[in-house]
Amino acid sequence: MAKQFDVVVIGAGPGGYIAAIRAAQLGMSVACIDAWTTGDGKPAPGGTCTNVGCIPSKALLQSSEHYEQATQHFAEHGIEIKGATLKLDTLLGRKNNVVKQNNDGILYLFKKNKVTFFHGMGSFAAQVDGGWSIKVSGASDEDLVARHVIVATGSSPRALPGAPYDEKQILSNDGALAIPEVPKKLGVIGAGVIGLELGSVWRRLGAEVTILEALPEFLSVADQQVAKEAQKAFAKQGLAIHTGVKIGEVKTAARNVTVVYTDASGADQKLVVDKLIVSIGRVPRTEGLGAEVVGLKLDERGFVAVDEDCRSNLPNVWAVGDVVRGPMLAHKAEEEGVAVAERIAGQHGHVNFGTIPSVIYTSPEIAWVGKNEQQLKTEGREYKAGSFPFLANGRARALGDTTGFVKILADAKTDEVLGVHIIGPVASELISEAVTIMEFRGAAEDIARICHAHPTLSEAVKEAALAVDKRALNF
């Protein structure tokens, strides 16, 4: 006898588990299916983000930052450390423990909110009376019937043609988080978020890192003033970044990987490294979902086709997160998950794509929300700009981290904030104020008139807002 639920969520990543919890909060009977497994065979909900993405990469970034501070910068504070050594197995073990805590936390939240969890692969079997028949294939197979289905199966790393991942020498984000010893030479193909973050981790730990990027401009998705500041900072740290390259053959040998490529000038080049991280984007994960069995429509790129409310072409079948259009960000998936659960309950779930922040957790951190200057110029929109350097911020000086600036773009006539771009210490936290202001369609003047505690890094946001009107007080 099939088990009946109001909502079945396929996938327990950020979009899936949050959708399941919100639906349960709204009084529905909910099941969530996820196949992710730990090394010892136990359930590991949380998807790519928790297991091989956001969470473990931040753990490694924190640990590697501590190591670099201890070996290179503590002396500036009068703290002398002699003979500091790296215990990589301990560092990786801490990362694994952080991941496990998050896995266990999600299982606890399911129990707390009365969400039934099934460990296995979830797939469509048929349309039936009362909704959709969903099969769970795992340690013990189950048959479920759902009135509504939310597909939240996430994404997988895109492999380089002719160079499949073996997770030993050619690494995806998964293998790059678990290299057993620091490579002497590390290559990274792709200067996006994953490439820059993981490249930074292993550089701090002692690797010589070379990043190859196909696009002619570094960080073309960011404001170009921010991108130039970031490239300068990374070069100073020792990250070798080459843009405008065309990758040719990738050959693996017993102990190295050779990348043949053409540089921006058209000259043939060869890079020989111990390990190669390939981070050239991600693709939607729909294999094994059974989309073809029930006629669930996928678009030309393989994403589940949905409308602006995340409805698919099938009645009461929804999809959220990386498996649908839009930015592949965990927080975007969460917002869509909540919105869909509320729509199922008859409410008006809301997601504003214009105020979804983007963050790169390097040092300096990079964060932005809204439009950048090149976009506003392309649109022909009249705007004002104000910026403020962390070099002039008292808290940043005290921290010893004065790289970067805050930049605010506002409408020339109404003063509405159109975009905020930050490069510098804890930009990931500072961007939230900008998101809030933009959600309320606030003005630069609103930020300028809000009292910010002193001394704080957030004062740089206020000063940038003052600078929009050419009245910064500390610069």
UniProtKB/TrEMBL annotation:
It is found in: Cytoplasm. Residues 5-337 form the FAD/NAD(P)-binding domain. The active site is at H454. GO terms for biological process: 2-oxoglutarate metabolic process. Its cofactor is FAD. The keyword Oxidoreductase applies. Belongs to the class-I pyridine nucleotide-disulfide oxidoreductase family. It catalyses: N(6)-[(R)-dihydrolipoyl]-L-lysyl-[protein] + NAD(+) = N(6)-[(R)-lipoyl]-L-lysyl-[protein] + NADH + H(+). One of its GO terms (molecular function) is dihydrolipoyl dehydrogenase (NADH) activity. Its EC number is 1.8.1.4. GO terms for cellular component: cytoplasm. This is Dihydrolipoyl dehydrogenase. Keywords: Cytoplasm, FAD, Flavoprotein, NAD, Nucleotide-binding, Oxidoreductase, Redox-active center. It is an enzyme of class 1 (oxidoreductase).
